[in-house]
Amino acid sequence: MKALRDPDRLLSEGLAAIRGQFKVPAGFPTAVDAAAQAAALRQPSEHKDRTGEAFVTLDPAASTDLDQAFTIETAGSDLLLQYAIADVPWFVADGDPLDNEAWARGETLYLPDGKAGLYPRVLAEGAASLLPDGPRPAVVFTTRVAPDGGVKLEGAERALIQSRAKLAYETATEAQLPAGFAELSLRITTAETARGAARVDPPEQEVEAADGRFNLVLRPQSLSERRNAALSLATNLAVADALYAAKTGLFRVMAGPDERAVARLRHVAKALGLDWAAPLSLPEFEKSLDPQRPEAAAFMLAIRRAGTGASYVPYQEGVKPWHAAMAATYCHMTAPLRRLADRYVIRAALAVTNAQPVPAEVTTAFARLGPVMGKADARANQIDRAAIDLAEAAMLSGREGESFAAVVTDVDEVGPRIQLCDVPVVARVTAHSVSPGEKLTVRLASADPVKRQISFTRIA
Hints:
The protein is α+β, with helices and mostly antiparallel strands. It has two domains: about 5-250 and about 330-395, no CATH class; about 405-460, CATH 2.40.50.140. About 35% of the residues lie in helices and about 25% in strands. It has helices at about 10-20, 30-40, 90, 95-105, 120-125, 180-195, 225-245, 260-270, 280-285, 295-305, 340-355, 360-395, and strands at about 5, 50, 55-60, 70-75, 80-85, 110, 115, 135-145, 150-160, 165-170, 205-210, 215-220, 250-255, 310-315, 405-410, 415-420, 425-430, 440-450, 455-460. A five-stranded mixed sheet has the order 2-9-8-5-4. The longest helix is centred in the C-terminal third of the chain and has 37 residues, at about 360-395. The two termini are about 30 Å apart.
């Protein structure tokens, strides 16, 4: 849940409780702020001048921590994606206060009313961000994209770039984007389909207050947002292949949903009124969904919740790292302003591409980063889940005593889990002798936004 529209601040107490429960930092220690101020003054000295190239950024309109800028060239039937990534390693040295604080945080934490950044704003939204107000240091990755969507890393170098425009998902036009933007995205999507990938882009949840009541809104990704994600995916896949071939790296891995999770999702689809034909696999069914439909958007969120979770693993001899949703070997390296691990993957890729040894500090970091990023991811997911619980409780607040149609999606040692049919809420219910797929009528017993709790009882 990235946005919460609450003009009367009715949920402020609940959000404050989430920040306190998960120890979300309100700022940075004095020494870290001082180190960031000093780092922001560091001048690029190992960077090729590429300020003459037409790089642009594409992000949510309000974003100022811009990790990526891009331009696209043609090379015969291939496309060359020039993907500039914020050169965070240039500003952050191993063992300095910025580095130590980043290791303690792991990643930027997002709440509906704000974020707790991985790095201070003077860097993340200033000197290191690829804003269009002046040249910025970056690491530019060149990825060759074939007509069938195959990708190969052609090179990487430190460069000084000048973004031509800060484009927004909400307003960007075809004329403002580099030629080849839509075609490159199509190629990557085609390759995903051929691989059997099952990547899910669920909608964002928003809660709107009106007339003293709350409504849950699901906002699917825009076309420009989905196309932009293909650029990051292409670069991450190409870098992962290059690192694996060099017998180094840190990879993002994930197993696919197990049989029980898929069975539960079939019940969720039934609850939402979606026709999931028995012969279709989950990836095939996903491809048929229109995220503009509220029920399909809700199901996509359910898929995200049903996943076994991704993790980070370093290179291991004889072990092929695999990400089931991507159906490929995959890594994270395109968001170094927001994820600690990306900074080290960038350093390794820069070394490997230029036939240099990977720094010992980077190899050591790869061995340590898995648990650190796992803890950070778990914390971020817990915060996200708490925010969703808050949203669901807020949406239902004031409707105590009302009846709802529901379908049992799962039964475990805690009891039945249900999906409401008319609103995208997943909850527990007090009921006995029920089975997955069974339809119920339930009554809302309580909905407390401050405690982030909702309670249902079965009435039929």
